[in-house]
Amino acid sequence: MTIQADLLGAIETYFDAIHDCDTEKLNAVFHPQSSLFDADNGVVFVEPIDSFSRDVAGRVSPASKGQDREAEVLMVDFLSPISATVKIRIRAHQSVFVDHLGFVLGADGWQIVSKIWHLESTIPEGV
Prior knowledge:
The chain is α+β, with helices and mostly antiparallel strands and about 130 residues long. The protein has 3 helices and 6 strands. It has a 6-stranded mixed beta sheet. Helix 1 runs antiparallel to helix 2. The termini are far apart.
């Protein structure tokens, strides 16, 4: 595989982890010291990956509700051969998020070291 194909594979793992609420995949694609950030409520919110993983483990997965996986890569920007920023859009239930994922290539492959997310929209029930 190439660096780009490996990175796209890591992104697909992230998409699957969120759609299936699969913490094994989630923990494989996130660096163990990574954190997630947002400021949608006017205050910077920081969540370590361990906390986020526990949150995901307690959720009902979109897959179990029969929701098709709706996720797309909007941009990939390689900062170097071993670091990249990826902008994605992903739907989980009625929420549509835009994420900026910071990836670094290390001994365990491409891993997310930071995630900044924003709730872009909420889709009405039944859509």
